[in-house]
Amino acid sequence: MASANSLTASVQALTLQSTTQTSKFAGCFPSLNPMDIYREHIAEQLGKAADIDPELIFSRLAWTNTLDKGDLSLPVAALRIKKKPDELAAELASKFPESDLIHPPTAFGPHIQFFCKPGPLAKTVLGRVLTEKAAYGTNGNMGLKDPSDPSKGKKKIIIEFSSPNIAKPFHAGHLRSTIIGGFLANLFTVMGWDVIKMNYLGDWGKQYGLLANGFKYFGDEEALTKDPINHLFDVYVKVNRIVGEQEGPIKELKEQIKAKKEKGEDVATEEAELAKLVDASEDEKARRYFKSMEDGNPDALALWARFRDLSIAKYKQTYARLNIDFDVYSGESQVKAESMANAFKAMEKAGVTEESEGAVIADFTKHGAKKLGKAIIIRKDGTPLYLTRDIGAILERDEKYHFDKMIYVVAAQQDLHLAQLFKVTELMGHKDLASRCQHINFGMVHGMSTRKGTVKFLDDILRDVGDKMHEVMKKNETKYSQVENPEETADTLGITSVMVQDMTGKRINGYDFNLDAMTSFEGDTGPYLQYAHARLCSMARKSELNIDELSSADFSLLTERHAVDLIRLLASWPDVLINTAKTLEPVTVLSYLFRMTHMLSSSYDVLKVIGSEPELKKSRMALYAAARQVLHNGMRVLGLNPVERM
Ligand SMILES: NC(=[NH2+])NCCC[C@H](N)C(=O)O
Questions:
Q1: What is the total count of domains within the chain?
Q2: How do residues 471-527 score in pLDDT, each as one tens digit?
Q3: β 156-160/405-409 pair status
């Protein structure tokens, strides 16, 4: 399983080996990243030939988006030499000495394009992929506090994601947060960070009172243990219906009182009646119940804790299907009153808060942040709010974990909330803490529902997509009969479909949840990606070669353009990961993987394995095995489970 924990092991093995082999350039790891061998080489050679600081050249060498632009490119304007860039590029290109590693470079406008010579590249890249396996592309040095002194340890990151609300549906926003957060956790893990995965549950508030009372009327012990999430939701819906029914008469009576008062009539009877209605209402009972929780009533807290524990146990099962396990189940309930009180004092002292109609508010417009408006910090009745808890929590986490970075993966609908949280933190005097925090947001998903109805629990969605994939698989009888565990494979393919659809665009773009589109084999979909992986696995089986011995193949036989381009693409995988650590976009990885699958599918006819001479067969199989490995590594970072047959 591609849990972040198993990824950690791959990273560590390689990092240890790389620290013994360092480069004179900062951030250059030739033993981890083949392209760094080339960057180092170009920087030194060009530096010497043209008398330019090699460090400057090294830091300006960029990767390319398409292979026709070279393997590395140097935008010469960045060298800050007073000459027309086009002329300078031509001049420097001509000065570049003959090299074993690089073809004579060409100037293309203001860029110099460098193309690697295929022979040595194939040897380095394929050799490494086949021996480093899951560790190829990882870079444990990126997460070190001090890359020149590993004994100082790793940087620590908290990634808070998923964070559903107990007893309410797990909606599309939580699904996206789960997918993106899981991906970020894997990404930072392969970059050598110490990652803490945190789930901040919506597990506190008046809705709990409602739920607890509702459970007295509609609860069923057996149903609760069997399927807590669905049962609690049922109870929640039923008791909410009563709340809805009671609202009408209360509202009516309030209007009557208002009208009578305007006419100057006596309303004593009506007011007494209203007080009675309100007092007996579920809403008021819920408020009282929650108050008893806040006051520490042991019975109320015990019931709440049971609901919470059962829900978490169930969530864990669902997360496991997505290859995710959390290190910490925190939640709104876990924020200490003391932390909120301390935060409140700090806010008061810093002049962030003020009184307004009995409540305490923060008016950001007075603190140079017009767009953030005003926010209530403490309600009129003295109770804290969602924002207040987040303020307490951010301080607690800072104290407890001493993190270098914290990411909140939350829908763009909460942009204002997180901006307010970070601003308050800064204004309270924790500017440094605020600067270590980042909101990773994302757009909305429309129309997420199952085929049978609109129930929006994650399990239902995953089951539905899995069923659909099962139908698709059954259509190919011969293949279907060879799949060992078709149900499990269908489940994996379904989950892949959902996740790939989610990661196809930039995070901020919303999309329509489209069951037919995501489960199709046409286009860049999850099933297509899995198919590409399964096909490479099948090729390895049919070749009857020993995959562990392929690194001894003669790579110089791989001379065709298709082979060379594929190797060049495999060479860039470590750079793709480094770039992803900057964009923090799953699509950066995903589009790389689809580029590879397209290249593979156009290679099969040209680079045949079966039927080729033994040596050629072996070297081509080595190429495909390396491609499979990188595909596998990329899918694992995305949180996908690559299948071997389908
Ligand atoms: N620290 C936070 N506020 N995280 C986001 C929590 C999301 C919240 N439970 C919701 O469903 O809307």
A1: 2
A2: 999 998 998 999 999 999 999 999 999 999 999 999 999 999 999 999 999 999 999
A3: parallel
- Tens digit of each residue's pLDDT (9 = 90 or more) over 55-71: 999 999 999 999 999 99
Q: Which residues contact 123 (CB under 8 A, 6 or more apart)?
A: 555, 556
Q: Which residues are catalytic?
A: 168, 171, 174
Going from the Cα of 633 to the center of ligand 1, the distance in angstroms, rounded, reads: 31
Domain boundary (81, 116, 151) is at 116
DSSP secondary structure string for all residues of 9-63: HHHHHHHHHHHTS--SSTT--TTT-HHHHHHHHHHHHHHHHHT--HHHHHHH-EE
The CATH number given to whatever domain includes residue 629 is 1.10.730.10
Q: Tell me the C-alpha distance between 528 and 478, whole Å.
A: 19
Q: Whose CA is nearest to atom 11 of ligand 1?
A: 164
Domain boundary among 116, 135, 163: 116
Q: Whose CA is nearest to atom 9 of ligand 1?
A: 202
Phi, psi of 618 (to 5 degrees): -65, -45
> Is 163's C-beta closer than 6 angstroms to any atom of ligand 1?
yes
CATH, residue 42: 3.30.1360.70
User: Which atom of ligand 1 lies closest to the CA of 201?
Assistant: 9
332 lines ligand 1 (CB under 6 A): no
| ipTM of this complex prediction, to 2 decimal places | 0.99
**Are 154 and 194 within 8 A, CB to CB?**
yes
Query: Could you tell me the residue range of the domain that residue 104 belongs to?
Result: 34-116
